[in-house]
Amino acid sequence: xxxxxxxxxxxxxxxxxxxxxxxxxxxxxxxxxxxxxxxxxxxxxxxxxxxxxxxxxxxxxxxxxxxxxxxxxxxxxxxxxxxxxxxxxxxxxxxxxxxxxx
Length: 102
Prior knowledge:
It is a single chain. This protein is mainly alpha-helical. The chain has a domain at about 1-70. It has helices at about 1-10, 15-25, 35-40, 50-65, 80-100. It is elongated. About 0% of the residues are buried.
């Protein structure tokens, strides 16, 4: 982002720091949505260097959270009951598609 601002400055276009901060905040991926909400609720607005430091911390937090996620696998006969209900649903869909017979 700072490279983009430097290029625009050489072209004679002034880029305000608050614009850069807002541009960065809106271009963040969905994983940072909690971070965006947090930023919007505070009264003090960050400058570019503060935002960069906060984003590095948030990225580290997200990596830790990703490592702590575990998949739960269950064993049992519950899957067999789902199969029978899905077969019934498929038959109902076929009858619905065919429509009334004349």
